[in-house]
Amino acid sequence: MKALPHLLVTALLAASSSFAHDLVIANGRVMDPATNLDAVRHIGITGGKISAISETPLTGEKAVDAAGLVVAPGFIDLHAHGQTTSDLQIKAQDGVTTALELEGGVYPVASWYASREGKAPIHYGATVGHITVRFAAFHPEMRLGQWGGGRSRLAQLGPNPAGANKVASEAEMQSMSAAIREGLDDGALGVGFGINYTPAATTEEIEALFRIAAERKAPVFVHTRAFGIAPIREAIEAAKKSGVSLHIVHIGSSAIGDMPEVLRLIDESRAAGMDLTTEVYPYTAASTMLESAMFNPGWQDNLRITYGDITWVATGERLTKETFEQYRKQGGWVIMHMMKDANVEKAIAHPGVMIASDGVPFVDGRGHPRGAGTYARVLGHYCRDKKLLPLMDALAKMTILPARRLEGHVPMMKNKGRIAVGADADITVFDAAKIIDRATFEAPTTPSAGVSQVIVGGVFVVRDGELVKDALPGRAVRSTP
Ligand SMILES: [Zn+2]
After folding, report:
1. Residue 165 sits in which domain range?
2. pLDDT tens per residue across span 179-197
């Protein structure tokens, strides 16, 4: 009998070396919008990839029980300005496994990617950004780097910076064209535009730069020249002429009061064969930098608001004419209460409209709650409580649709947004009955509730509802391998 413990140890060693998978997510309700699978399955993960999807139990070196919980592809955020480690940790707790800076973009691209390496809990990536490229052409002494990243240095350029407000010469056009080509060579995910922030960029300039993206088969991600349907038409026409794939960002604020007409225009353009997509964040307030050209004279007509509709983020106070002028010189983040919930709901429920946060960086714990609560808010508030759309459709808007938006230009995205054998093991496990956003305008970094496990490349970033603080498995997403 003395040999028994030894035999047991031997048997256990044999068993451990025969585990088929590194990790098993057992008994969960697997929902995969790419295939419409909605059934209890066991998921095996090995080497950072999904290695099995099984109706019968699997053995793994580690296992987590997901009985009663939804097991979905990790959420892909196409609009994430907040790219610091802590910004991305807050996003992970909202179920996000990939957060991309596509609207503002970055420049130079290679050094931005290098600066993020080893610091990201979830996957990250960026476009080359027209705004930053334009400022580099006009103000070669100053590199904005990432548009809207962290504390803005824009205010240092004074009230009327040429990068925003001066028409480009031939030399400046060439400089911008070269920078965009260089960014795409460096693996940028497309080209980002914020035309509202560079009002002097003519339609001809935009079209010429769209053509560079079109030549490279790269999509463009566009914040239009102004709010409402007319500038959305301008972007669509320019994209048609240049043959580029167009994604219009944050349709809630971009369409503003014209939502039904804008959604109809987008549907008609798509039906006519155009590669055109859009996204929405589930909040009625926008956020940006007060020193930006969005607040050039005429902003009240464009945004359809006035001073008292704007919150100064640093203090939470509402602005007056006097404080508006004072803070605009200083520079800093504001929140603009400018949308109607009925219009935001129309966009969330509309087929094909993706969910993306537009999360701006949190500065000293302050900012817009969308950077923390977007995904749980759609799943809990709009999908479960208000019954705006079925759960599978809501998940599609967060997973497979954003993956497909990018995968033509970014082959890596073919392995994301799906529960499939061989796909990246980026997985979010949540309680459909409990998931809800908790971030508010008063406490914007409060993590969402009901997100149980977030796995990034096979590594837990959220485990049993708690952030794993030292987990940094996020990898760069680039258009080139
Ligand atoms: Zn924007």
Report:
1. 75-284+339-409
2. 999 999 999 999 999 999 9
